From TrEMBL:
Keyword match Hydrolase: yes
PROSITE patterns hit by this protein: HD (PS51831)
Name of the featured protein: HD family phosphohydrolase
Signal peptide: none
Lineage: Bacteria, Pseudomonadati, Thermodesulfobacteriota, Desulfuromonadia, Geobacterales
Keywords: Hydrolase
Length: 267
């Protein structure tokens, strides 16, 4: 694996990332499937970050991809050590990603201010709420990475829910029991236009609703457009129980998305 001191730009960082993934290779096909899932996820988050940052100039687009490439570095040691992607049962994977950055020279090719922005965008990418008081450039990068991450997490879960059981990456479902109902507290949150919190989850259906509620936490109109173009809301909805309450909630989320798109096309 080549050394992180050889990283001089986005291209060499991308090559380093490939070598980093290979360094976790496992002979166990189930373990390897979970590593492959995170490698592909990272590459797709990079693509989404490039699209979402497209209007902000080349430098912003490059930084968005650097942050995207680094955001889940911690997933690899997390899974190797704990065999789970559930932070509550292991470690905060975003902190672990930030630690990998701190212990390497990966970001040394960037000026100090940009290096700090990427570092905090990585470290904070999974927080429930963005903290106040961040420098504007850091907050922008954090919002970009969070949008790009969500766009691809939806793809991962839609693939997971539609895959035959034997082909699923075992750690992707996070171990929630596949019970036939949704919790009231979770339904109420989505109905009220609020994000669902991880602590509310009791079933896989609750987890699907949590993902639906992420639509309320999207920052950029390009991301809203990608959600619509990729039919992510209807695809996620198709995995939920087909009853009147759930249909009402899906309509509420879809309506929110349409409102955001309409508001933007009117300005
Ligand atoms: Fe993450």
């Amino acid at each position: 694996m080549f050394d992180s001191s050889e990283v001089t730009d986005l291209v060499s960082l991308t090559a380093w990332f490939g070598a980093y993934c290979r360094s976790f290779r496992s002979a166990d096909p189930e373990v390897q499937r979970n590593f492959d899932l995170k490698e592909l996820h990272t590459r797709k988050v990079c693509e989404a970050a490039r699209l979402i940052a497209a209007e902000g100039g080349e430098r912003r687009q490059m930084l968005a991809q650097v942050a995207a490439l680094c955001h889940d570095l911690g997933r690899f040691p997390q899974y190797r050590e704990y065999r789970t992607f559930l932070d509550s049962e292991s470690v905060n994977h975003a902190h672990l990603s930030a630690q990998v950055l701190k212990q390497s020279s990966l970001l040394d090719f960037l000026p100090k201010e940009e290096r700090d922005s990427v570092y905090f965008a990585v470290r904070l990418h999974n927080v429930f709420q963005i903290p106040a008081g961040l420098p504007a450039a850091t907050e922008d990068l954090l919002r970009l990475v969070r949008d790009a991450d969500k766009i691809d997490i939806w793809r991962v879960f839609i693939d997971y829910f539609f895959a035959p059981e034997g082909e699923r990456a075992s750690a992707a479902g996070l171990g929630f029991p596949d019970l036939p109902y949704c919790s009231d507290e979770v339904l109420k949150a989505v109905e009220a236009g609020r994000m669902v919190e991880l602590t509310m989850l009791k079933s896989l259906n609750d987890f699907k609703l949590l993902q639906l509620s992420w639509v309320y936490d999207i920052n950029f109109v390009t991301t809203h457009k990608l959600i619509k173009e990729r039919s992510l809301v209807p695809q996620l909805a198709a995995t939920l129980p087909d009853d009147a309450v759930v249909r009402g909630i899906v309509d509420r989320v879809q309506g929110y998305l349409e409102d955001r798109l309409a508001a933007n096309s009117a300005t």
